[in-house]
Design brief:
Length: 149
């Protein structure tokens, strides 16, 4: 479907097996996804135009989940199929990416969803046994989109 970029803040949290939640990343949607991802297609593809995510010093161990959240700045809805989350990580020190599917980004928010309410938009990525994960270390693209058609 046709889509426009949401007015929101995108966030990533580490959620430990004991339920403790810690914010790892937070930035405005227009910064995290320059040009948006209309119809699920990333508008900005040149590496020099993408934002850089510094390495977060927190190391995530087995069983910890990396969960995507958004907080809307205007009352709107979200279309997960048009949204793109491409997050750089270091897995045991080697660069890699977690994409929307890895993060379980499948949550559609209904039109006129309330503002200033943080909500998870994916089931999250669970760190596997033997892995140590840090987010950041490369360019990234995160764009949360709504339906316009």
């Amino acid at each position: 479907m046709a889509s426009d970029q949401l007015f929101c803040v995108n966030r990533l949290y580490a959620v430990r097996p004991d339920g403790k939640k810690q914010r790892l990343f937070s930035a405005s949607n227009n910064v995290t996804g320059p040009g948006g991802s209309p119809d699920g297609v990333q508008a900005t593809v040149k590496a020099n135009e993408l934002p850089e995510m510094g390495v977060n010093q927190l190391v995530l161990n087995a069983g910890t989940k990396l969960v995507p959240y958004i907080e809307l700045s205007t009352s709107d809805g979200m279309d997960a199929s048009d949204s793109i989350w491409s997050v750089p990580i270091l897995r045991n020190g080697s660069p890699d990416y977690l994409e929307s599917a890895d993060l379980g980004v499948t949550v559609d928010l209904p039109a006129a969803f309330p503002v200033n309410r943080e909500v998870p938009v994916g089931s999250g990525y669970t760190v596997a046994d033997g892995d140590r994960i840090q987010i950041g270390g490369a360019t990234y693209f995160i764009s949360s989109e709504n339906d316009t058609a």
